[in-house]
C-alpha cells in the first residue's frame, strides 16, 4: 500500500483526493493537514466521507509527512515551494496540484503570481504533470507540477493538431468555460449562488494565470512559440470545463482530422475521442477522470473547432494527480479512477 | 458472476443501474432491453458509459431474459406485471423498481394506478424491497417490489419512532422535496430547465401515488392504520430527496431520540444517523446509496422533526435494487455500492 | 415627489429598493449610504442600475437623512435602532426592513438577537409592517418594523384560518423553503454556488429568529398563544419563498375554505388566491410584489394544507416596504409595484 | 392606443410580449391566438400574468387580426409567411419575431429552413429588425423580420469594428452561449432540467440556422462577404446570451477601441458600453432590453475580444419587437421597456 499524505485537505481538490483515494486498492491516506481544522475528523467537514475515512486533520508537520511515500499539495500557490524541498530531499515523492512547479521561466512565474519563488532549482528538476504529454518522464519523477484545469483541457484538445503541424500555431483561440468549483471553496461574493447562478460572464480576458502555462505547454508541443488568445468564462454550475478551441488549418482539404485524433489517443485510458459530429457535454465526465474530445471543421472551411471537456476537479486536478501517482508507483494507471460519470 | 438482465434501460433508473453495475465485482449485465432503441449501444445514449459497457439495447424477449439469474424492471408501472409471471415461473429472480408489486391491496392499487392488475396472486407472494425493514424476507424472495423513492426516505425516517410507539401514529406529516429526476426522462414541459429551475412548487397535495404505499408501510410498522399527510415538492435540482417528517411525541420528556435512532440503525450499512443537531444535505448522498438522518425536538416541545435524505436514483431506486440483489444472491451487501457522494 | 433615503444600500434588499424605486412615479432616492462604498456610484456595484440611477453611496449622516421624507433601513439588525430615534424625532418617517422593531417583547428580542436593545420605548410605538393585517395603523405610523420574509409568507397563509378560528391554534406546522438570497450578499461558504446549488437542506430546526416573530403575529391573529413548529429549508435557487402550512380543522366537514380565502383577500392588491386545486410556483411571483396562495384539504380529512409563495426580496422585503411607503404617504398602493413576474 | 395582435401566444416570446405590453402606456393587446389553447385565459397558462391581462386565446383569424394596428408573430418559422401577405395588404403592420423575413436570399433561406418560401416578394420588401443598424428604415416599414437572438448579440458586438474597417473581415469567430429558453417551450428531452442543468455543451458547430443570418448582416455592415465561424453553446440557465467575439486588428497599435464603441453607441437607448476592462454578466440584463458590451485587446496584441450580453427573450426577441413597434408608431423608443434587470 502506498502511504499518502495530503497537505491542505480542506479545499475542493483536497476533498476530491479523499473521495478518489477512499476506493483506491493500493493507496491509503495516512496524513492530512489543515492548520485551521486541526483535530477535526475530515468527515465532520465533508459528510460525504462519513464511513469512508476516519482520519483527522493535523497541522502540517514535515516529519509526519516524510513518513509517507508520496505527498500531494492541494494548496494555494506558494505553499508547496516552502515544503517540497525538504520532502524531496528526504526521498518523498511530491505531487503539487498547485502552480509552484508548472512554469519553467522563474521570472515569468514571479510576474504572474506576484511572489518570489523560493526554490527555482527544484523547478528545473520538476516534471510537468500531464500524462498524455510526457508519461515516461512522470514515471521516474521525484517532483511533479500537475497541469492546471484549463491547461489540461486546452492542451489535450490542441495536442494532435500542433504535433502534426497542421494548423497555424500563431492564431490559436481558446474560449473556455468553467464551473464555479474552479474558484475554490473560499468565501467570496463573486461565487455566491446568488451572484454566479443564472448568469454567464467572461473574466480575466486581459490576462489570466493559466495563460503563460498553456502557452508554455503548447509552444513545447509545437516546437515554437505559439500565439494564443485565452478567454475564461464562469459557468452557472459546479463542475466541468468545456474548452472550445479554434485554429486555422494550413491546408483545409488535407487531413482526416477524426482519424488523427483517434490515432493519437488510441491507447490513452482517459482520453475519449467521440464519434465524428459529436458535441461532448461536461456532465458526461462529471466525477470521472475522462477527457472527451470531438473535432469539427465547420462547412469544410479552414477553421478547426475542437471541443474538449473534463471535470475540473478530477482530470483537471485530483484525478490527474492520482493517475500520476499510479504512474510513479508503477500501479495500474486506472487504479482508483474507475468512477462512471453521474448522468443525470 | 450473477447474470443480470434489465428491462427498460433507457430511463434514469436504467442508466443508474448500468452505472452501479459497471463496477460491481460479482455481477455482469447480459441483456438490456428497449423497444425504441433496439440495436443502439447503451453508450451512444449515455456517453458516461463509454468505455464501461459495450452492450446494445435489444427488444424485450422472455427467452433471452430467462437465461439471466436476475431481471430488473426499470419500467413504468404495468410492464413488470406483464412479464414477471413467466420469468418467476422459469426460476429467474425478479426485482421490480416500479410500482406493480408494492401494494398488497389490489383494489387500492388499481384505484391509484388506474389499471387492472394482471397477476394479483404474484403480488401476494412478492416481498416489499426495503432491506432495513425486512432484510430476511428479501434474502429468500423470488420477486421484489422495491420501495419507491419517497417511501424509502419517509419510512426510514419514521421507522424508529413508530416501532417504539413513541409518537401519535394518527398525526404524521411528511413534507417531501424531490429533485426533478424523480419525474423521469420523458419529454414534458413541466420539467424543462426553463420551467423547473429557479422555482419551487408543491404538487399532488390532494393525492399522490406514493401516499398509499407509504401509508401501507408505516401502518405495518406501527401495527395499526396511521394517519398521514404527504406533500411532495419539486426542487430545482437533478437528484436528491429531502423528507421533513413531523410527528407528535406521546410524552415529550421521555426518550433519548438520538440514542433510539443510533441504536436502531447501528448495523445498517446504508443508513447514517448524523450527530445530534445536524441538518443533512441531499448533496451529501449524491450518487451514493446512503440515507442520512437526523432527529430534532425543537425547543423541547412535543413535536419531533426527522430529516431524512437520499439520492432518489440510488437508495431511492437503482442502488436499493442492487443492495437487494446482493442480499438475494448472498453477496456482500455493499458490493458495487461503495461510491462516495460527490461534494461539491 | 417623496424624498427617499436608504441606509445600507449595498445588500440585496438595498439594490431591490433601488430597482423598484427606479420606476416609481412619486418617489425619488435622494440619499443612499454605505460606509464601505463611499463615493462609488451605485451603478458601479450593480450594473443593472446603469442608466436608471446616477447617485453615489455616501457615509451615513443623520443631517442628510433628516432632509428626506422617509428613510428605509436595509441593514442588519442593530443598525436601525441606533439611528431611528433621532430621525423620528426630527419628523422623518422610518421604515426598517430589518428586525429591530418587529418584536414587542424586548426581552424576547434580546434573547434571540443576542443584543441589548437601545430604544425599547420606540419599539412600543412602532407599527408592524404587514398591510394585509393592519393597513390602517400603517397609514398613520411614524416608524415601521417591516414583517420578515418567512413571517410574511406564513402569516398571509394562516391569516384566514386563524381569524375564523377554524383550526386548532396549538398545532401549526410551517415547513418553509427559501432561495439563497434570503441569506444576504455577505461572503460565506454556506451559500457559495458550489455548496448550495444541487442540494436541499433544512437549517435552524432547533430555533430560528423568525420563530418568535411569526409566533407573535399568529398569536395576535388567533387572539391566544399559538403552538408553532417552524422548519426553514435552503433551496438551490436565488429568489422565492414557498411556505407549506399545516393545521388541523376543528371540524373537517364544515367550511368552504376556498371561499374563505377568496373573501378575505378580495380587496388585497398583492394577495392572489389561486383557483381551487392549484399549486403556486415561486417563479410566478419572481420579481413581483404578489403573494399567491392556494388551500387544500387532502382526501377530505381534517388537515388543511396552505401553499403560500412570495419573492423574498419583494413582498418579503423591499416591495413590501414600498407598499408601506405608499400607504404612509397616501399614494396609490400599487405605485412602483406593477412589475410582472419573470416567467420563464 | 396601438391595438396589438399576437399570433402564437403560448411560447416564451409570446408570454414575454405579454409581460412587456402589460405596462406599455400606449399599446393594448386586443387579440392573442393559439390553436391548442383556444378559450383559455392567458393567465391560466402563465400565472405571472394574473391581474395583468384578462384576455383569452382565440384561434388565428385574419379578420380579427386585421382589426389590429400591428400584429406580432411569435411563431415557429413558416407561420408568418402564410398569414403576413393578407395582413400587409389590409394595411396592418407586421412584426415577425421568427425567421421568415430575415434572409434576403430565398434559396439560402430554403436550404437552411428546409421549406419552400411562399411569399418571396414580401421578403424583398421586408425590413430587417435591428434598430441600431437601420432605425430609419424600420420607422417606415410595413413588415419587419426581427433580428434573431444570437444575431442581435453578435451584430451589435461587431458593428463598430466592421463599420470602421479596423479588423480583418475574413477571420471572425463568434463563440456564443445561450440560456435554455432559446430552445423554446416545446417538450424535449434535451432541455429537461435533468439534461441541461449542471452541464455545458456546444451544439450546431457544423452549421446553425443563425449562421447565414449573421453572415448576411455582418457582410452588409462590412460591405463585403465576411468569413465567420459561429459556435453556439447551451448554458445551464434560463435566460441570457453571452457572445464572445474574436477578430484580428489590421493594425494593433492604431485605434482607441473603447472610444470607438462609446462613440458609436452614444445615443442608443438600449446599448450600454461598459467601462474599459469590464466583463458584462448576462444577469445584468435579465428581464431588460439592454445590450451591454465591453471591448478588450488582451496583452496589447492584435486580437480584439468583444463581450456582448443580452436577454435572449427581451433584446433578443420580444423587447426588440416592442422597441420596433415604438419606432413604427412614432412612440417614445423606451415605452414599455423601462424594466430594470433583476439582480440578484
Describe the structure.
Four copies of one chain form a homotetramer. The first copy, chain A, is an alpha/beta fold. The first copy, chain A, has two domains: 2-125, Rossmann fold (3-Layer(aba) Sandwich), CATH 3.40.50; 150-311, Dihydrodipicolinate Reductase, domain 2, CATH 3.30.360. Chain A has twelve helices and 13 strands. In chain A, strand 3, helix 4 (80-89) and strand 4 (93-96) form a beta-alpha-beta unit. Chain A is globular. Chain A starts with a strand and ends in a 16-residue tail after the last helix. The model of chain A has no long low-confidence stretch (mean pLDDT 97). Chains A and D meet through strand 7, strand 8, strand 9, strand 10 and strand 13 of A and strand 7, strand 8, strand 9, strand 10 and strand 13 of D. Chains A, B, C, D: It holds the Pfam family Semialdhyde_dhC_1. Chains A, B, C, D: It comes from Marinobacterium iners DSM 11526.
**Largest beta sheet of chain A, briefly?**
7 strands, mixed
> Low-confidence stretches of chain A at least 5 residues in length (pLDDT < 50)?
none
Tally of DSSP β-strands of chain A: 13
Overall pLDDT confidence of chain A: 97
Estimate nothing, just give the exact number of structural domains of chain A: 2
The run of helices and strands of chain A is: EHEHHEHEHHEHEHEHEHEEHEEEH
CATH architectural name of the largest domain in chain A: 2-Layer Sandwich
Give the termini separation of chain A: 34 Å
GO biological process, one term (chains A, B, C, D): L-arginine biosynthetic process
GO molecular function (chains A, B, C, D): N-acetyl-gamma-glutamyl-phosphate reductase activity; NAD binding; NADP+ binding
Enzyme class (chains A, B, C, D): oxidoreductase
Family (chains A, B, C, D): Belongs to the NAGSA dehydrogenase family. Type 1 subfamily.
Amino acid at each position: 500500500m502506498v502511504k499518502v499524505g495530503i497537505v491542505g485537505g480542506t479545499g475542493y481538490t483536497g476533498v476530491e483526493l479523499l473521495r478518489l483515494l477512499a476506493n483506491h486498492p493500493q493507496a491509503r491516506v495516512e496524513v492530512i493537514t489543515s492548520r485551521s481544522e486541526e483535530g477535526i475528523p475530515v468527515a465532520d467537514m465533508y459528510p460525504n466521507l462519513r464511513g469512508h475515512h476516519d482520519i483527522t486533520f493535523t497541522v502540517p508537520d514535515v516529519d509526519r509527512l516524510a513518513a509517507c511515500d508520496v505527498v500531494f499539495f492541494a494548496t494555494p500557490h506558494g505553499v508547496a515551494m516552502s515544503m517540497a524541498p525538504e520532502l524531496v530531499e528526504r526521498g518523498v515523492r511530491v505531487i503539487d496540484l498547485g502552480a509552484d512547479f508548472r512554469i519553467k521561466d522563474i521570472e515569468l512565474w514571479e510576474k504572474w503570481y506576484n511572489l518570489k519563488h523560493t526554490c527555482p532549482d527544484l523547478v528545473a528538476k520538476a516534471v510537468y504533470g500531464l500524462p498524455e504529454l510526457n508519461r515516461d518522464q512522470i514515471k521516474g519523477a521525484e517532483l511533479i507540477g500537475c497541469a492546471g484545469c484549463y491547461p489540461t483541457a486546452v492542451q489535450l484538445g490542441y495536442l494532435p493538431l500542433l504535433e502534426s503541424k497542421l494548423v497555424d500555431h500563431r492564431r490559436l483561440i481558446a474560449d473556455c468555460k468553467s464551473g464555479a468549483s474552479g474558484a475554490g471553496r473560499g468565501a467570496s461574493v463573486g461565487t455566491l449562488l446568488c451572484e454566479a447562478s443564472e448568469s454567464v460572464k467572461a473574466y480575466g480576458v486581459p490576462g489570466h494565470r493559466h495563460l503563460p502555462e498553456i502557452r508554455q505547454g503548447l509552444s513545447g508541443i509545437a516546437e515554437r512559440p505559439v500565439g494564443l488568445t485565452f478567454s475564461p468564462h464562469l459557468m452557472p454550475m459546479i463542475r466541468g470545463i468545456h474548452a472550445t478551441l479554434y485554429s486555422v488549418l494550413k491546408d483545409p482539404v488535407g487531413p482526416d482530422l477524426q482519424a488523427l485524433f483517434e490515432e493519437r489517443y488510441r491507447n490513452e485510458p482517459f482520453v475519449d475521442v467521440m464519434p465524428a459530429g459529436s458535441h461532448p457535454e461536461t456532465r458526461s465526465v462529471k466525477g470521472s477522470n475522462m477527457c472527451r474530445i470531438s473535432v469539427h471543421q465547420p462547412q469544410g472551411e479552414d477553421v478547426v473547432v475542437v471541443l474538449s471537456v473534463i471535470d475540473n476537479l478530477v482530470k483537471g486536478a485530483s484525478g490527474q494527480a492520482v493517475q500520476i501517482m499510479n504512474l510513479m508507483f508503477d500501479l495500474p494507471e486506472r487504479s482508483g479512477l474507475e468512477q462512471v460519470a453521474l448522468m443525470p
